Amino acid sequence: SGRFSKPAEKKTGITFADVAGQDQAKKEVAELVEFLREPERFEKVGAEVPHGVLLMGPPGTGKTLLARALAGEADVPFFSTSGSEFIEVFVGVGAGRVRKMFEAARKAAPAVIFIDELDSIGRTRGTGLGGGHDEREQTLNQILAELDGFDGKEAVVVLAATNRPDVLDPALLRPGRFDRHVMLSLPDKAARRAILGIHARKLPLSETGDLDTIAAGTPGFSGADLKNLLNEAAINAARRSDDKITGSDLQDARDKVMMGTVRTLAIQP
Ligand code: ATP
């Protein structure tokens, strides 16, 4: 069963400076850095810091990035898994994996656990084909049990990400579980410019490669889309055997990513 589980990252090397925009979300998550750095300080005065944080927002807005940045800022190990890894595994396997991951994180504490795509396991129970006794439900129950098992002192912060908070089992959102909610949103023009800036740092842009223009022309693009756009533009430049990325490379890449987005949206139910 170790086949799917990722080894913990000892150091993510990611900081809040790597996350552009999302100021409110960063602020809320940053409150946990001090706790992870010096849990004793909080324990001494009997302060119980929330363990479960739900990151909500559209795909590609930086939920995973923000979770890794929290671990990086606090300089603690990062354990991660995705809800989609628990689909179609044998009964008991998912729950076992969850248990092992929490056990490892508790041993390594202070630590951060990240569960991506929580909705793929955390949907309202009792609606599965297995009449409510399916594998997914066991995995979900294990996550609930682990969250309930924290004694308030263990310095393990559990972040989970979803773009479908509406389908989550309300049991996940109860006090002591994922009771802190942080919203991430699609970037506005200034944030898009900042995201482009971060990902273009190491790219050779020609004078025509103006990121302000691209930021203005990409409403609705997520951070992930913008990163894709820059990569597409670099591929364009390489195809032309150019060593600089030009304005038209960027425009062509923008159109391509936009078409891709349109197509993806069109096939969704
Ligand atoms: P999903 O819901 O699809 O899992 P997500 O919200 O977790 O997406 P990430 O996986 O963190 O999004 O984002 C994908 C990539 O897009 C990141 O690795 C990062 O390079 C880039 N990115 C997204 N948002 C930002 C941002 N605010 N600042 C800088 N880069 C970003």
From TrEMBL:
Acts as a processive, ATP-dependent zinc metallopeptidase for both cytoplasmic and membrane proteins. Plays a role in the quality control of integral membrane proteins. ATP binds at G57, P58, P59, G60, T61, G62, K63, T64. Residues 49-188 form the AAA+ ATPase domain. This is ATP-dependent zinc metalloprotease FtsH. It is found in: Cell membrane; Membrane. The chain holds residues 137 to 405 of 604 of the full protein. Homohexamer. The gene is ftsH. In the C-terminal section; belongs to the peptidase M41 family. The lineage of its organism: Bacteria, Pseudomonadati, Pseudomonadota, Alphaproteobacteria, Rhodobacterales.
